């Protein structure tokens, strides 16, 4: 549990755009419907790379929180690198591309200003650090919606000290529901993300699933990507070792890794994450950055 | 750190844009208006080297041999600026899309005699991304000798396989569509691209009722229209109405048909009134007029609209 100042600040920041323009667009998709307006995000002039981030949220043990910060630094670049550092300094490498993540935030019931850490806090932080990233949330409507002064609640449980809201810091959100009256299951998020990835994959864009911690849903997503990756090079996976949960378990399963050579593993350090993300093309140094429109 | 060098070698990161061409041939989808154009089709637009999309609409009915001969040179001359030595100095590098049909001869070779061939011709000449949406107005067939996709009533009407991607729109597997069935779908596609920062334009020449709807449909959506003067029919009628305020040729063909059949011409009056209302409310700078026999007139408009890079 923490108060994330950077993302909270970004949520209320009105730097160059007005508050309205910087607010995420929200599209609600019922089963059987298309979501063309959300998919139109991929028309933006952003580097062709799809990063899908998944992993632990409410059930993540606090001893694994530190790795979330490592991931932010690895994907968002080292803020302490001096301006004079060379353009090919790998510490300056940042994520450029489209990022699909769970799109939610957990806030305290007793004190809504308290933010419970989870994987979904990593990617919104990139919106301030990575100007050439498009942060896109895919949210399962796991509970009936409630609008509150603290955000739109998408799920809450009596047993938890937190509620889950739509994260205020992202570019666009797709909210999934079977129907107006029925609730979605948590698996629908990753299943829809795989659907969404089909078009970039067919257009030969590179992709990567990064998994940190997580439970049963994360395990099913890792397995699905690992299976898809046998046929299509888009579906590469990066597991963070020692991140706990199922991602940590898969990362130590040598049989699984041997069977799926497109599944990669990094240590739970900034340096190791950065090296792998560079190798897999998810982050680029300013020197290596190439716009799509370049010849 | 665990490394897997073999995997890394086979999945090298791509930092440059992927080639937009499907190695198998022209990417083809069949879609219904309810589901819209598939994302995999739409993303072809993002592989263009310039964030711009131009729809080429209309036809060439009634063209003189001279006008027919002038059509492709008009587009080739208007989409690229060249120096005295013939080297390209500026050009259009975005998406060009159209109705996507082409005439084939007995050997399966496609002609360049129709407006719908413009994207493929510009793709070959300048590397634009060529796409199309085609309403399925007849049952489809696979031509026996070469397997080309026949989409018209005659075996010579094919989908132009020289393009990057083609979408055939149908009501359902068993139901045909009217000739204008793809228009709302492609306008939605253009609107989404426009919202994402693409420049947009519609170039019209000749054409009948559908082309008229495309002209006024584009204007009502804030999409610039480049109308080709001297191309006859509804495009020239539009120019006459826009420039001279003379609406006498708008909907003239339909009106003549109704008169010949001794039917009420009020539907035509309503259409003209609708067009007048649209034109009265739009920014006039959205309209450019160019001449079919003068490629430079198109080149100047393309440059002025920032479409040459």
Number of helices of chain B: 10
For the report, how would you describe the main beta sheet of chain A? 8 strands, parallel
CATH architecture of chain B: 3-Layer(aba) Sandwich
Q: What's the rounded overall pLDDT mean of chain A?
A: 91
Q: What is the end-to-end distance of chain A?
A: 47 Å
- Poorly predicted runs of chain B are 1-18
- The CATH topology label of chain B is Rossmann fold
Describe the structure.
The complex is a heterodimer of chains A (about 300) and B (about 300). Residues about 5-15 of chain A have low confidence and may be disordered. Chain A is about 25% helix and about 25% strand. Chain A has a single domain (about 25-285), classed as Rossmann fold (3-Layer(aba) Sandwich), CATH 3.40.50.450. Chain A is built from 9 helices and 15 strands. In chain A, the strands form 3 sheets. In chain A, strands 1-11-7-4-2-12-13-14 form an 8-stranded parallel beta sheet, sandwiched between helices. Chain A has a 5-stranded antiparallel beta sheet with strand order 6-5-10-9-8, with no helix packed on it. Chain A is of the alpha/beta class and about 300 residues long. Chain A has helices at about 5-10, 35-40, 65-75, 125-130, 185-200, 215-230, 245-250, 255-260, 270-280; strands at about 25-30, 50-55, 95, 95-100, 105-110, 115, 135-140, 145-150, 150-155, 160-165, 170-175, 205-210, 235-240, 265, 285. Chain B is α/β, with parallel strands linked by helices and about 300 residues long. Chain B has a single domain, classed as 3-Layer(aba) Sandwich (Rossmann fold), CATH 3.40.50.450. In chain B, helix 6 (about 210-220) links the parallel strand 12 (about 200-205) and strand 13. In chain B, helix 3 runs parallel beside helix 10 (about 295-305). Classes of the chains: A alpha/beta (about 300), B alpha/beta (about 300). At the A-B interface, helix 2, helix 5, strand 14 and helix 9 of A face helix 1, helix 2 and helix 5 of B.
């Amino acid at each position: 549990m923490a108060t994330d100042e950077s993302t909270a600040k970004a949520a209320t920041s009105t730097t160059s755009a007005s508050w309205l323009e910087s607010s995420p667009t929200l599209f609600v998709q019922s089963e059987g419907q298309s979501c063309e307006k959300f998919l139109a995000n991929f028309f933006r002039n952003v580097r062709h790379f799809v990063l899908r981030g998944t992993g632990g949220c409410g059930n993540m043990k606090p001893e694994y929180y530190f790795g979330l910060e490592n991931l932010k630094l690895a994907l968002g670049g080292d803020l302490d690198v001096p301006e004079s550092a060379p353009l090919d300094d790998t510490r300056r490498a940042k994520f450029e591309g489209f990022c699909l993540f769970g799109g939610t935030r957990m806030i305290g019931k007793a004190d809504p200003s308290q933010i419970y850490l989870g994987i979904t806090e990593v990617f919104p932080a990139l919106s301030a650090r990575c100007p050439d990233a498009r942060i896109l949330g895919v949210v399962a409507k796991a509970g009936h919606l409630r609008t509150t002064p603290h955000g739109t609640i998408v799920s809450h449980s009596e047993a938890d000290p937190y509620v889950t809201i739509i994260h205020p810091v992202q570019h666009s959100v797709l909210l999934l529901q079977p129907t107006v009256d029925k609730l979605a299951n948590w698996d629908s998020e990753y299943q829809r993300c795989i659907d969404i990835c089909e078009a970039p994959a067919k257009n030969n864009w590179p992709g990567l699933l990064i998994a940190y911690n997580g439970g049963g849903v994360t395990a099913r997503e890792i397995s699905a990507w690992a299976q898809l990756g046998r046929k299509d090079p888009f579906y590469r996976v990066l597991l963070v070792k020692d991140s706990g949960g199922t991602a940590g378990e898969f990362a130590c399963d040598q049989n699984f890794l041997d069977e799926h050579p497109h599944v990669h593993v990094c240590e739970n350090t900034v340096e190791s994450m950065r090296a792998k993300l560079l190798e897999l093309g998810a982050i680029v140094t300013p020197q290596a950055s190439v716009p799509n429109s370049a010849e | 750190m665990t490394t897997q060098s073999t995997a890394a070698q086979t999945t090298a990161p791509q930092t440059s844009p992927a080639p937009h061409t499907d190695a198998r041939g022209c990417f083809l989808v069949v879609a219904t208006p309810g589901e819209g154009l598939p994302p995999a089709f739409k993303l072809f637009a993002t592989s263009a080297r310039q964030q711009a999309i131009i729809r080429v609409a209309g036809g060439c009915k009634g063209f003189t041999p001279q006008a027919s001969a002038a059509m492709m040179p008009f587009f080739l001359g208007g989409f690229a600026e060249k120096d005295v030595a013939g080297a390209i100095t500026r050009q259009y590098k975005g998406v060009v899309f159209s109705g996507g049909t082409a005439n084939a001869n007995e050997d399966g070779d496609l002609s360049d005699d129709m407006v719908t061939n413009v994207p493929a011709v510009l793709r070959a000449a300048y590397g634009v991304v060529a796409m199309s949406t085609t309403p399925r107005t007849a049952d489809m067939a696979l031509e026996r000798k070469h397997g080309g996709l026949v989409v018209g009533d005659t075996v010579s009407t094919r989908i132009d396989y020289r393009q990057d991607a083609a979408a055939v729109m149908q009501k359902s597997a068993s139901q045909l569509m009217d000739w204008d069935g793809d228009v709302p779908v492609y306008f939605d596609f253009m609107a989404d691209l426009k919202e994402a920062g693409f420049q947009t334009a519609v170039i019209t020449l000749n054409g009948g009722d559908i082309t008229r709807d495309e002209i006024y449909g584009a204007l009502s959506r804030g999409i610039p229209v480049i109308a080709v003067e001297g191309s006859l029919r509804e495009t020239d009628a539009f120019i006459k109405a826009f420039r001279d305020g003379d609406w006498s040729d708008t909907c003239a063909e339909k009106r003549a048909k109704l008169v010949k059949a001794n039917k009420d011409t009020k539907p035509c009056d309503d259409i003209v009134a609708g067009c007048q209302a649209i034109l009265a409310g739009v920014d006039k700078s959205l309209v450019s007029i160019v001449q079919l026999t003068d490629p430079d007139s198109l080149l100047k408009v393309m440059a002025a609209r920032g479409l040459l890079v």
